[in-house]
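Anyone up for a design puzzle?
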């Protein structure tokens, strides 16, 4: 799959500059741990980020089905002068214990963040998609690593939500997380609906 994605001109990954890079977790003399969370996965590949020149980073979840132009989120992030932007979506009948839930004020700032509680009073789901400046990300990841913290949500988002300006971008379109067998099955059933197919394949 990686070779197929890398070689194709159709999605612009097969380039000499930029393109697709895959970072598989490895154990070395310096590091004897697999990825222990999103923050740790980024920390273990921090040299790549430090060598980059792009001003912004988009972090995305690998187990969700959606269609979105990341440029829209980036423009929103810059317009809001946010430190971190979290892409959110409405919790329509979802099992909230599987997700982080958030509350936004009228300005779009996230004022509350609950992570995978059995019951939540909040009705917006964090999709696991984040935008922030590359230098800020490096600083936050290094600080978390120094303290032995590995979770991007608990150790960065929740920790800094009252210190940094954390905004929510609302994705008002189909989104599904397929991290469980039931959710994977239900998403396949969703694609039998003509409106879902049109949304993705028109």
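Challenge accepted. My sequence:
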């Amino acid at each position: 799959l990686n070779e197929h994605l890398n070689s194709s001109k159709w999605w612009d990954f097969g380039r000499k500059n930029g393109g697709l890079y895959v970072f598989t977790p490895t154990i070395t003399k310096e590091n004897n741990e697999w990825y222990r969370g999103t923050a740790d996965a980024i920390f273990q590949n921090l040299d790549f980020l430090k060598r980059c020149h792009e001003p912004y980073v988009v972090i995305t979840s690998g187990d969700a089905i959606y269609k979105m132009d990341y440029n829209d989120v980036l423009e929103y992030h810059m317009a809001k002068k946010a430190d971190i932007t979290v892409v959110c979506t409405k919790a329509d009948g979802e099992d909230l214990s599987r997700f982080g839930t958030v509350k936004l004020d009228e300005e779009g700032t996230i004022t509350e963040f609950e992570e995978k509680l059995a019951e939540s009073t909040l009705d917006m789901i964090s999709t696991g998609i984040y935008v922030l400046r590359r230098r800020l990300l490096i600083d936050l990841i290094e600080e978390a690593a120094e303290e032995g913290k590995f979770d991007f949500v608990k150790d960065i988002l929740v920790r800094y939500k009252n210190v940094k300006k954390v905004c929510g971008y609302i994705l008002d379109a189909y989104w599904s997380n397929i991290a469980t067998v039931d959710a994977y099955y239900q998403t396949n059933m969703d694609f039998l609906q003509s409106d879902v197919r049109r949304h993705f394949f028109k």
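A detail worth pointing out: The first helix runs from residue 2 to 7.
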